Amino acid sequence: MTHFFPYDELTWPEVAALRRDTPLVIPLGEGYDLAQLAEALGDPASVGLLPPIPYGWPGSGLETAAAPFAQMVSNLLDSLQDDGFSLVYALHPQGLELGLGPRSLAQRHSSQLRVAPPLPAHAERDKCVLVPIGHTEQHGYHLPLSTDTLIIEAIGQGTAAAVPDLAVCLPPFPYGASTHRSSFAGTLNVGGRAFENFWLAVVDALVQRGFRLHYLMSGHGGNCSFLVNVVKYAGERHRRIFCATAWLHTNGHIAGPVLSATRLSGRGGMGHAGELETAMILALRPDLTRMERVVDETDFVATESYYMDWIEGGALVANPPWDDDTATGAYGAGSLATAEHGRLWLDAAIAEKAAHVREIHEQYSRREERREAGYGLWGMTARG
Protein backbone atom coordinates (compact mmCIF):
# COMPACT_ATOMS: atom_id res chain seq x y z
CA MET A 1 0.00 0.00 0.00
CA THR A 2 1.28 3.46 -0.92
CA HIS A 3 2.29 5.72 1.95
CA PHE A 4 1.42 9.39 1.41
CA PHE A 5 3.53 11.84 3.41
CA PRO A 6 3.18 15.63 3.83
CA TYR A 7 6.23 17.12 2.10
CA ASP A 8 5.91 20.47 3.86
CA GLU A 9 6.24 18.91 7.33
CA LEU A 10 9.77 17.76 6.53
CA THR A 11 12.98 19.65 7.17
CA TRP A 12 15.39 20.30 4.33
CA PRO A 13 17.87 17.53 5.28
CA GLU A 14 14.95 15.07 5.16
CA VAL A 15 14.07 16.29 1.67
CA ALA A 16 17.72 15.98 0.66
CA ALA A 17 17.65 12.35 1.80
CA LEU A 18 14.58 11.36 -0.23
CA ARG A 19 15.03 9.06 -3.21
CA ARG A 20 14.88 11.20 -6.33
CA ASP A 21 12.39 8.81 -7.94
CA THR A 22 9.88 9.46 -5.14
CA PRO A 23 6.74 10.86 -6.81
CA LEU A 24 5.85 14.35 -5.62
CA VAL A 25 2.37 15.78 -6.24
CA ILE A 26 1.01 19.33 -5.97
CA PRO A 27 -2.79 19.14 -5.75
CA LEU A 28 -5.10 21.90 -6.93
CA GLY A 29 -7.47 21.90 -3.99
CA GLU A 30 -8.23 19.05 -1.61
CA GLY A 31 -10.47 15.99 -1.58
CA TYR A 32 -8.91 13.78 -4.26
CA ASP A 33 -9.14 9.98 -4.12
CA LEU A 34 -5.69 8.90 -2.91
CA ALA A 35 -6.22 5.25 -3.83
CA GLN A 36 -6.95 6.32 -7.39
CA LEU A 37 -3.89 8.59 -7.34
CA ALA A 38 -1.67 5.75 -6.13
CA GLU A 39 -2.97 3.54 -8.93
CA ALA A 40 -2.29 6.24 -11.53
CA LEU A 41 1.30 6.47 -10.26
CA GLY A 42 1.84 2.71 -10.38
CA ASP A 43 1.32 2.03 -6.65
CA PRO A 44 4.74 3.28 -5.48
CA ALA A 45 5.94 2.68 -1.94
CA SER A 46 5.58 6.35 -1.01
CA VAL A 47 4.32 9.61 -2.49
CA GLY A 48 4.99 13.12 -1.24
CA LEU A 49 1.95 15.38 -1.15
CA LEU A 50 2.79 19.06 -1.29
CA PRO A 51 0.48 21.76 0.09
CA PRO A 52 -2.64 22.11 -2.06
CA ILE A 53 -3.04 25.28 -4.10
CA PRO A 54 -6.22 26.75 -2.59
CA TYR A 55 -7.54 28.84 -5.51
CA GLY A 56 -6.87 30.21 -8.96
CA TRP A 57 -8.46 27.59 -11.24
CA PRO A 58 -12.07 27.25 -12.48
CA GLY A 59 -14.27 25.81 -9.73
CA SER A 60 -12.01 26.92 -6.88
CA GLY A 61 -14.21 29.83 -5.82
CA LEU A 62 -11.63 32.41 -6.93
CA GLU A 63 -10.63 31.95 -10.56
CA THR A 64 -7.81 34.00 -12.07
CA ALA A 65 -6.68 34.46 -15.64
CA ALA A 66 -5.48 31.09 -16.93
CA ALA A 67 -2.00 31.97 -18.21
CA PRO A 68 -0.46 33.35 -14.98
CA PHE A 69 -1.94 30.51 -12.98
CA ALA A 70 -0.52 27.87 -15.32
CA GLN A 71 2.92 29.52 -15.31
CA MET A 72 2.97 29.59 -11.54
CA VAL A 73 2.20 25.86 -11.34
CA SER A 74 4.78 25.05 -14.01
CA ASN A 75 7.49 26.97 -12.14
CA LEU A 76 6.74 25.09 -8.93
CA LEU A 77 7.18 21.76 -10.70
CA ASP A 78 10.40 23.06 -12.24
CA SER A 79 11.69 23.76 -8.72
CA LEU A 80 11.18 20.14 -7.72
CA GLN A 81 12.88 18.91 -10.88
CA ASP A 82 15.79 21.29 -10.25
CA ASP A 83 16.18 19.50 -6.89
CA GLY A 84 16.62 16.27 -8.84
CA PHE A 85 13.15 14.74 -8.46
CA SER A 86 12.19 12.93 -11.66
CA LEU A 87 8.49 12.24 -11.00
CA VAL A 88 6.67 15.50 -10.27
CA TYR A 89 3.02 16.20 -11.00
CA ALA A 90 0.17 18.64 -10.62
CA LEU A 91 -3.05 16.88 -9.66
CA HIS A 92 -6.06 18.78 -10.96
CA PRO A 93 -9.73 18.41 -11.87
CA GLN A 94 -10.54 16.72 -15.16
CA GLY A 95 -10.87 18.98 -18.18
CA LEU A 96 -8.40 21.59 -16.91
CA GLU A 97 -5.58 22.22 -19.40
CA LEU A 98 -2.43 23.70 -17.85
CA GLY A 99 0.05 22.85 -20.60
CA LEU A 100 2.10 20.62 -18.28
CA GLY A 101 2.30 17.59 -20.56
CA PRO A 102 3.33 14.42 -18.71
CA ARG A 103 3.55 16.35 -15.43
CA SER A 104 -0.25 16.56 -15.36
CA LEU A 105 -2.58 14.16 -13.50
CA ALA A 106 -6.34 14.63 -13.83
CA GLN A 107 -9.00 13.26 -11.52
CA ARG A 108 -12.68 13.94 -11.09
CA HIS A 109 -12.91 16.45 -8.24
CA SER A 110 -15.60 17.69 -5.88
CA SER A 111 -15.42 21.13 -7.53
CA GLN A 112 -16.85 19.50 -10.66
CA LEU A 113 -19.73 17.94 -8.77
CA ARG A 114 -21.02 21.11 -7.13
CA VAL A 115 -20.47 24.83 -7.43
CA ALA A 116 -17.83 25.96 -4.96
CA PRO A 117 -18.82 28.92 -2.76
CA PRO A 118 -17.12 32.11 -3.89
CA LEU A 119 -13.91 33.20 -2.14
CA PRO A 120 -14.62 35.50 -0.40
CA ALA A 121 -18.42 35.54 -0.18
CA HIS A 122 -20.09 38.31 -2.19
CA ALA A 123 -21.68 39.65 0.99
CA GLU A 124 -18.18 40.55 2.28
CA ARG A 125 -17.45 43.08 -0.47
CA ASP A 126 -17.25 46.07 1.87
CA LYS A 127 -14.54 44.37 3.94
CA CYS A 128 -10.80 44.35 3.44
CA VAL A 129 -9.68 41.07 1.86
CA LEU A 130 -6.70 39.67 3.78
CA VAL A 131 -4.47 37.58 1.54
CA PRO A 132 -1.99 35.54 3.62
CA ILE A 133 0.90 34.39 1.44
CA GLY A 134 3.42 31.98 2.90
CA HIS A 135 5.93 29.69 1.27
CA THR A 136 7.29 26.16 1.24
CA GLU A 137 11.01 26.48 1.88
CA GLN A 138 13.83 25.29 4.10
CA HIS A 139 14.03 26.54 7.69
CA GLY A 140 17.21 25.00 8.98
CA TYR A 141 17.50 21.62 10.65
CA HIS A 142 14.68 22.12 13.14
CA LEU A 143 11.66 23.80 11.51
CA PRO A 144 9.32 22.44 8.82
CA LEU A 145 9.14 23.70 5.25
CA SER A 146 5.64 25.03 6.09
CA THR A 147 6.93 27.55 8.67
CA ASP A 148 6.10 30.73 6.75
CA THR A 149 2.63 29.50 5.77
CA LEU A 150 1.71 28.38 9.30
CA ILE A 151 2.72 31.75 10.76
CA ILE A 152 0.99 34.00 8.25
CA GLU A 153 -2.13 31.79 8.32
CA ALA A 154 -2.38 32.29 12.09
CA ILE A 155 -1.81 36.03 11.77
CA GLY A 156 -4.30 36.42 8.92
CA GLN A 157 -7.04 34.42 10.61
CA GLY A 158 -6.33 36.13 13.92
CA THR A 159 -6.65 39.53 12.29
CA ALA A 160 -9.98 38.66 10.68
CA ALA A 161 -11.24 37.42 14.06
CA ALA A 162 -10.04 40.63 15.76
CA VAL A 163 -11.88 42.94 13.31
CA PRO A 164 -14.65 40.76 11.85
CA ASP A 165 -16.70 43.71 10.63
CA LEU A 166 -13.74 45.10 8.69
CA ALA A 167 -11.86 42.11 7.25
CA VAL A 168 -12.28 38.69 5.66
CA CYS A 169 -9.38 36.26 5.25
CA LEU A 170 -8.62 34.04 2.27
CA PRO A 171 -7.09 30.59 2.81
CA PRO A 172 -3.30 30.80 3.13
CA PHE A 173 -1.35 30.48 -0.10
CA PRO A 174 1.60 28.13 0.49
CA TYR A 175 3.97 29.15 -2.31
CA GLY A 176 6.11 32.21 -2.92
CA ALA A 177 9.34 33.42 -4.48
CA SER A 178 12.78 32.26 -3.30
CA THR A 179 15.86 33.59 -5.03
CA HIS A 180 18.05 31.33 -2.85
CA ARG A 181 16.25 28.19 -4.01
CA SER A 182 19.35 26.30 -5.12
CA SER A 183 21.28 26.66 -1.84
CA PHE A 184 19.31 24.13 0.24
CA ALA A 185 16.96 21.28 -0.65
CA GLY A 186 13.21 21.57 -0.14
CA THR A 187 12.71 25.16 -1.29
CA LEU A 188 10.25 25.89 -4.07
CA ASN A 189 10.06 29.00 -6.23
CA VAL A 190 7.12 30.48 -8.13
CA GLY A 191 9.58 32.87 -9.83
CA GLY A 192 9.50 36.63 -9.34
CA ARG A 193 7.69 37.68 -12.51
CA ALA A 194 5.28 34.75 -12.42
CA PHE A 195 4.58 35.58 -8.77
CA GLU A 196 3.77 39.20 -9.67
CA ASN A 197 1.60 38.20 -12.63
CA PHE A 198 -0.37 35.68 -10.58
CA TRP A 199 -1.07 38.03 -7.67
CA LEU A 200 -2.03 40.86 -9.98
CA ALA A 201 -4.47 38.41 -11.60
CA VAL A 202 -5.89 37.63 -8.14
CA VAL A 203 -6.43 41.34 -7.45
CA ASP A 204 -7.99 41.73 -10.90
CA ALA A 205 -10.43 38.90 -10.17
CA LEU A 206 -11.40 40.36 -6.80
CA VAL A 207 -11.88 43.86 -8.21
CA GLN A 208 -14.04 42.47 -10.98
CA ARG A 209 -16.29 41.02 -8.28
CA GLY A 210 -16.55 44.34 -6.45
CA PHE A 211 -13.85 44.03 -3.75
CA ARG A 212 -11.95 47.29 -3.39
CA LEU A 213 -9.83 46.81 -0.27
CA HIS A 214 -6.94 44.34 -0.35
CA TYR A 215 -4.12 43.59 2.08
CA LEU A 216 -1.43 41.26 0.72
CA MET A 217 0.19 39.80 3.86
CA SER A 218 3.46 37.90 3.53
CA GLY A 219 5.03 35.45 5.94
CA HIS A 220 8.10 35.05 3.72
CA GLY A 221 10.70 37.75 3.17
CA GLY A 222 11.39 36.73 -0.43
CA ASN A 223 7.82 37.67 -1.40
CA CYS A 224 7.96 41.22 -0.14
CA SER A 225 9.74 43.15 -2.87
CA PHE A 226 7.59 41.45 -5.51
CA LEU A 227 4.40 42.27 -3.58
CA VAL A 228 5.41 45.94 -3.63
CA ASN A 229 5.40 45.70 -7.42
CA VAL A 230 1.99 43.99 -7.39
CA VAL A 231 0.59 46.84 -5.28
CA LYS A 232 2.06 49.42 -7.66
CA TYR A 233 0.63 47.69 -10.74
CA ALA A 234 -2.76 47.17 -9.09
CA GLY A 235 -3.06 50.82 -8.03
CA GLU A 236 -2.24 51.97 -11.54
CA ARG A 237 -4.67 49.54 -13.15
CA HIS A 238 -7.57 50.02 -10.69
CA ARG A 239 -7.65 53.64 -9.56
CA ARG A 240 -10.55 53.33 -7.13
CA ILE A 241 -9.25 50.54 -4.94
CA PHE A 242 -6.83 50.52 -2.02
CA CYS A 243 -4.37 47.63 -2.30
CA ALA A 244 -1.59 47.50 0.28
CA THR A 245 1.20 45.32 1.58
CA ALA A 246 3.84 45.53 4.31
CA TRP A 247 7.33 44.17 4.87
CA LEU A 248 6.62 40.89 6.68
CA HIS A 249 5.01 41.19 10.13
CA THR A 250 5.88 41.86 13.78
CA ASN A 251 8.14 44.81 13.00
CA GLY A 252 5.95 47.92 12.80
CA HIS A 253 4.95 50.56 15.33
CA ILE A 254 2.85 48.18 17.46
CA ALA A 255 4.61 44.80 17.31
CA GLY A 256 8.16 46.07 16.85
CA PRO A 257 8.49 47.55 20.36
CA VAL A 258 7.06 44.36 21.89
CA LEU A 259 9.64 42.32 20.03
CA SER A 260 12.49 44.62 21.02
CA ALA A 261 11.52 44.60 24.69
CA THR A 262 11.14 40.84 25.06
CA ARG A 263 13.58 39.14 22.67
CA LEU A 264 16.52 37.29 24.19
CA SER A 265 18.82 37.38 21.15
CA GLY A 266 20.79 40.35 19.92
CA ARG A 267 20.82 41.69 16.37
CA GLY A 268 21.19 38.76 14.01
CA GLY A 269 19.27 36.36 16.25
CA MET A 270 16.03 36.49 14.25
CA GLY A 271 17.04 36.41 10.60
CA HIS A 272 15.55 33.12 9.39
CA ALA A 273 14.56 30.06 11.43
CA GLY A 274 15.91 32.04 14.39
CA GLU A 275 14.37 33.07 17.68
CA LEU A 276 11.19 34.67 16.26
CA GLU A 277 10.04 32.02 13.79
CA THR A 278 11.06 29.16 16.09
CA ALA A 279 9.07 30.68 18.95
CA MET A 280 5.99 31.11 16.77
CA ILE A 281 6.10 27.52 15.52
CA LEU A 282 6.60 26.32 19.09
CA ALA A 283 3.36 28.12 19.91
CA LEU A 284 1.48 26.93 16.83
CA ARG A 285 2.85 23.46 16.02
CA PRO A 286 5.20 22.17 18.71
CA ASP A 287 4.89 18.72 17.15
CA LEU A 288 6.75 19.99 14.08
CA THR A 289 9.52 21.78 15.99
CA ARG A 290 12.66 19.66 16.46
CA MET A 291 14.43 21.67 19.14
CA GLU A 292 17.07 18.97 19.63
CA ARG A 293 18.30 19.78 16.09
CA VAL A 294 18.65 23.57 16.48
CA VAL A 295 21.92 25.07 15.31
CA ASP A 296 22.41 28.75 16.11
CA GLU A 297 24.06 30.73 13.33
CA THR A 298 24.52 34.48 13.74
CA ASP A 299 27.70 34.99 11.73
CA PHE A 300 26.07 36.95 8.91
CA VAL A 301 28.56 39.15 7.04
CA ALA A 302 27.19 42.33 8.61
CA THR A 303 28.13 45.94 7.94
CA GLU A 304 26.49 49.20 8.97
CA SER A 305 24.30 49.41 5.87
CA TYR A 306 23.58 45.71 5.28
CA TYR A 307 22.82 43.06 7.87
CA MET A 308 20.26 40.37 8.64
CA ASP A 309 17.90 40.29 11.56
CA TRP A 310 14.12 39.78 11.39
CA ILE A 311 14.17 42.05 8.37
CA GLU A 312 17.22 42.93 6.32
CA GLY A 313 18.53 46.15 7.83
CA GLY A 314 20.51 49.14 6.65
CA ALA A 315 20.39 51.35 3.58
CA LEU A 316 21.64 48.75 1.10
CA VAL A 317 19.47 46.23 -0.73
CA ALA A 318 21.38 43.16 -1.90
CA ASN A 319 20.98 39.45 -2.56
CA PRO A 320 24.21 37.55 -1.87
CA PRO A 321 24.11 33.73 -1.85
CA TRP A 322 22.65 32.31 1.34
CA ASP A 323 25.44 29.79 1.64
CA ASP A 324 27.87 32.69 2.16
CA ASP A 325 26.38 33.16 5.61
CA THR A 326 24.86 29.89 6.80
CA ALA A 327 25.90 26.27 6.69
CA THR A 328 22.58 24.94 8.00
CA GLY A 329 20.04 27.21 6.29
CA ALA A 330 19.29 29.14 9.50
CA TYR A 331 20.16 32.72 10.37
CA GLY A 332 19.67 33.34 14.05
CA ALA A 333 19.45 31.90 17.54
CA GLY A 334 16.58 29.41 17.46
CA SER A 335 17.75 27.81 20.71
CA LEU A 336 16.55 30.88 22.64
CA ALA A 337 12.96 30.53 21.45
CA THR A 338 10.04 29.80 23.78
CA ALA A 339 6.40 29.05 23.11
CA GLU A 340 5.45 31.81 25.57
CA HIS A 341 7.28 34.41 23.49
CA GLY A 342 5.79 32.90 20.35
CA ARG A 343 2.25 33.48 21.62
CA LEU A 344 3.12 37.00 22.75
CA TRP A 345 4.61 37.91 19.39
CA LEU A 346 1.76 36.37 17.40
CA ASP A 347 -0.71 38.44 19.42
CA ALA A 348 1.38 41.56 18.78
CA ALA A 349 1.50 40.79 15.05
CA ILE A 350 -2.29 40.37 14.95
CA ALA A 351 -2.82 43.65 16.80
CA GLU A 352 -0.56 45.41 14.30
CA LYS A 353 -2.30 43.90 11.28
CA ALA A 354 -5.71 44.83 12.73
CA ALA A 355 -4.50 48.42 13.03
CA HIS A 356 -3.40 48.28 9.39
CA VAL A 357 -6.86 47.10 8.37
CA ARG A 358 -8.42 50.08 10.13
CA GLU A 359 -6.02 52.39 8.31
CA ILE A 360 -6.81 50.79 4.95
CA HIS A 361 -10.50 51.47 5.53
CA GLU A 362 -9.75 55.05 6.60
CA GLN A 363 -7.52 55.64 3.57
CA TYR A 364 -10.16 54.34 1.19
CA SER A 365 -13.11 56.20 2.73
CA ARG A 366 -11.28 59.54 2.93
CA ARG A 367 -10.08 59.23 -0.65
CA GLU A 368 -13.57 58.35 -1.85
CA GLU A 369 -14.95 61.42 -0.12
CA ARG A 370 -12.48 63.58 -2.02
CA ARG A 371 -13.25 61.88 -5.30
CA GLU A 372 -16.97 62.25 -4.85
CA ALA A 373 -16.47 65.91 -4.00
CA GLY A 374 -14.61 66.45 -7.28
CA TYR A 375 -11.15 67.03 -5.82
CA GLY A 376 -8.46 67.92 -8.38
CA LEU A 377 -8.46 65.86 -11.52
CA TRP A 378 -11.44 63.87 -10.24
CA GLY A 379 -13.55 66.98 -10.70
CA MET A 380 -12.24 67.48 -14.22
CA THR A 381 -13.07 63.88 -15.03
CA ALA A 382 -16.61 64.32 -13.71
CA ARG A 383 -17.06 67.53 -15.72
CA GLY A 384 -15.73 65.82 -18.82
Question: What is the approximate shape?
Answer: globular
Q: What's the order of the H and E elements?
A: EHEHEHEEHEHEHEHEHHEEHH
Q: Uncertain spans, ≥5 residues at pLDDT below 50? A: none
Question: If you compute it from the alpha carbons, what radius of gyration comes out, rounded to the nearest whole angstrom?
Answer: 21 Å
Bin the strand percentage: 5-15%
How does this model look, in words?
With 384 residues, the protein is of the alpha/beta class. Helices cover 37% and strands 12% of the residues. It has helices spanning 12-17, 34-40, 66-82, 110-113, 147-162, 192-208, 221-237, 255-262, 275-284, 339-372, 377-383; strands at 3-6, 24-27, 46-49, 88-93, 104-107, 128-133, 167-169, 213-218, 242-245, 307-308, 312-313. Strand 10 (307-308) and strand 11 form a beta hairpin.
Lay out the secondary structure.
Blueprint: E1 3-6, H1 12-17, E2 24-27, H2 34-40, E3 46-49, H3 66-82, E4 88-93, E5 104-107, H4 110-113, E6 128-133, H5 147-162, E7 167-169, H6 192-208, E8 213-218, H7 221-237, E9 242-245, H8 255-262, H9 275-284, E10 307-308, E11 312-313, H10 339-372, H11 377-383
Parallel strand pairs: 1-3, 2-3, 2-4, 4-5, 6-7, 6-8, 8-9
Antiparallel strand pairs: 10-11
Helix pairs in contact: 3-6, 5-9, 5-10, 6-7, 8-10, 9-10
List keywords for this structure.
single chain, 384 residues, alpha/beta, five-stranded parallel beta sheet, four-stranded parallel beta sheet
Sum this structure up briefly.
The chain has helices at residues 12-17, 34-40, 66-82, 110-113, 147-162, 192-208, 221-237, 255-262, 275-284, 339-372, 377-383; strands at 3-6, 24-27, 46-49, 88-93, 104-107, 128-133, 167-169, 213-218, 242-245, 307-308, 312-313. By secondary structure, it is α/β, with parallel strands linked by helices.
